[in-house]
Design brief:
Order of helices and strands: HEEHEEEE
Number of strands: 6
Strand order of the largest sheet: 3-4-5-6
Largest sheet: 4 strands, antiparallel
Distance between the termini: 82 Å
Shape: elongated
Radius of gyration: 34 Å
Structural class: alpha+beta
Length: 174
């Protein structure tokens, strides 16, 4: 009987009822490894699996960027409420129609949000990444997402994805 996968003992056990004598260990036996064909097949299978994973992960980057922009606008909404609580109006939220304020009480935080939205915003709509419209009693902030879509938040509590820039019409995400 051939014992594969482990080193055989040099002596048989006493309780087998056979005289103890050394077993022959074959020193001239060839050690067989993997053939070239087997290795190539394994490499081909790994390559196919990697390509499937890469194709399925291509959309994950865009979704992650969109989620980050949505999170940034949620933070901008919270800061807008803090601005309203301290100033009793929303005018300090926007520096212009295409940028959040970078000065004032919450300017540092709004500047960080603006930079993050610009770096993670849409690559297809680079000129209008952030849109900001304010009045004394209302605001609307939207940002471009991947796939020619916009995410909009406003002072009425609305937050959703639209196909057009909702803030261009005024201070509502309608």
């Amino acid at each position: 009987m051939k014992n594969k996968g482990f080193t055989p003992h040099l002596f048989r056990k006493k309780d087998e009822g056979i005289k103890q004598k050394p077993m022959k260990i074959l020193k001239d036996k060839k050690v067989r490894g993997f053939t070239l064909i087997e290795l190539l097949v394994v490499i081909a299978i790994i390559g196919i699996l990697v390509s499937i994973v890469m194709v399925s992960m291509s959309g994950a980057t865009a979704k992650a960027k969109d989620a980050r922009v949505k999170g940034d606008l949620a933070q901008a909404r919270a800061l807008a409420q803090m601005i309203y609580d301290s100033d009793t109006n929303y005018t300090a939220l926007c520096a212009s129609s295409s940028a959040l304020a970078s000065s004032g009480t919450y300017g540092t935080q709004l500047g960080i949000i603006q930079a993050d939205v610009v770096s993670n915003g849409s690559s297809t709509i680079p000129s209008t990444v952030v849109n900001c419209v304010t009045s004394t009693t209302a605001y609307c902030v939207s940002a471009a997402l991947e796939g020619c879509r916009y995410y909009c938040v406003d002072s009425a509590g609305r937050a959703w994805t639209t196909s057009t820039n909702a803030c261009s019409a005024g201070t509502d995400c309608l």
